[in-house]
Automatic annotation (TrEMBL):
Residues 1-24 form the signal peptide. It is found in: Membrane. The lineage of its organism: Eukaryota, Metazoa, Ecdysozoa, Arthropoda, Hexapoda. The keyword Zinc does not apply. GO terms for cellular component: Golgi membrane; trans-Golgi network. This is Cation-dependent mannose-6-phosphate receptor. It comes from Diatraea saccharalis (sugarcane borer). The chain crosses the membrane at residues 202-221. Pfam families: ATG27. Keywords: Membrane, Signal, Transmembrane, Transmembrane helix. It comes from the Eukaryota.
C-alpha cells in the first residue's frame, strides 16, 4: 500500500507540474543577448541600438558641503546592449574592468582643493572601475521589460522603457548597493512582432498536452491499483484492457462510418442479423 501511495504521489506531482507549465503565463524567452520572444511571436529586439559605444548615466553625491572636507562622489554607469565592448580603462590595482563588458561602473571621488585661492576647485583623488555584467550572463525578465545582470551576491537591473526620441540611460535607484536599478529609454524597447504570428504553441497543442498528461496519469494510477491492490500480472495490469484492445477496431469502424456518409452499411438479404429480434436494425 505504501508503494501505491508513493507512485500515486509521483504521478500526481507530474500531472500538476505539466499543467502548471502549460497554464502558466507567457514568458519572454531569451533567443540572443539582444532579443527575447513571447510564444505569440512578439518580443523585444535591441539589435538596432547595439552600436560601437556605451550609453552612460551619472549619479553623484555631494558630501560635507561648505566644509574643508567637501567632496563629490561620482558613479558613472556604462551600458552596451547585446554584446561586450572594451572599457578603454587603465588597469589600476582595484579595477575589475580588465575585459570586454556589457555593463560596468566607474567610481570617482573629487575632493576640495584647500590650497586654491578661491576654495572652489576640486581635484580627482580616487577612481575605480567595477565589473557589473557581461552580455552572455544577462537574463531577460519574464515580462521582457528588464535585463538582469547577475554578479552574485549582487545584481544590476536595466529596465527597458518604451520611449520615442534619443536613446538614453538613466540611474533609477541606488538605495540598495546590491540591487542597482538603471533605466534604458528607447523606441527599440517597445514590444513588436519578431516572429510570424502563430509560430508559438497553439491552443490545439495546449489541449493535446493536457489530454496526454491525463492519459499518462490515468495509466500510471490504473497500473498501480491493479498490480498492488488486485494482484494482476502481465497485460492484466493495464486498466480497461478490453477497451484498449478494441480501440483500433473502434477507430476503424468510426472512420468507415464517417466515410460512408454517417450511414449504417447495408445488410444482405437473409442475413442472420436481419432475423434477429435483438439486432440493431430490428430495434
Amino acid at each position: 500500500m505504501a508503494v501505491v501511495n508513493k507512485l500515486f504521489g509521483l504521478a500526481l506531482m507530474y500531472l500538476l507540474f505539466v499543467l502548471s507549465c502549460v497554464c502558466s503565463e507567457d514568458v519572454c524567452v531569451k533567443k540572443t543577448p539582444c532579443m527575447c520572444v513571447f510564444p505569440n511571436g512578439t518580443g523585444v529586439d535591441l539589435t538596432p541600438v547595439s552600436g560601437s559605444s556605451f550609453y552612460t548615466a551619472v549619479y553623484f553625491v555631494h558630501k560635507n558641503k561648505d566644509t574643508a572636507n567637501a567632496e563629490y562622489t561620482f558613479f558613472t554607469y556604462y551600458f552596451h546592449p547585446c554584446s561586450n565592448l572594451l572599457t578603454n580603462r587603465t588597469n589600476l590595482p582595484d579595477d575589475t574592468c580588465d575585459m570586454p563588458l556589457s555593463l560596468y561602473r566607474v567610481f570617482s571621488v573629487m575632493k576640495l582643493d584647500t590650497t586654491s585661492k578661491d576654495n572652489a576647485t576640486y581635484k580627482l583623488s580616487q577612481t575605480t572601475c567595477n565589473y557589473l555584467g557581461k552580455s552572455e550572463m544577462m537574463l531577460f525578465k519574464e515580462d521582457g521589460k528588464a535585463l538582469i545582470y547577475e554578479n552574485l551576491p549582487s545584481n544590476t537591473t536595466v529596465q527597458l522603457s518604451c520611449a520615442q526620441g534619443v536613446d538614453q540611460l538613466h540611474v533609477t535607484s541606488v538605495d540598495e548597493p546590491n540591487n542597482i536599478i538603471l533605466t534604458f529609454y528607447s523606441s527599440q524597447a517597445c514590444l513588436k512582432q519578431i516572429e510570424p504570428e502563430g509560430s508559438g504553441r497553439s491552443f490545439g497543442s495546449t489541449l493535446l498536452i493536457i489530454f496526454f498528461s491525463f492519459v499518462i496519469f490515468y495509466l500510471v494510477l490504473g497500473v498501480c491499483t491493479k498490480k498492488f491492490l488486485m494482484g494482476a500480472t502481465g497485460l492484466e495490469v493495464i486498466p480497461n484492457l478490453g477497451f484498449w484492445t478494441d480501440l483500433p477496431h473502434l477507430v476503424r469502424d468510426g472512420w468507415a462510418f464517417a466515410i460512408n456518409g454517417f450511414k449504417l452499411p447495408s445488410r444482405g438479404v437473409g442475413s442472420p442479423a436481419a432475423s434477429d429480434p435483438n439486432s440493431y436494425d430490428s430495434i
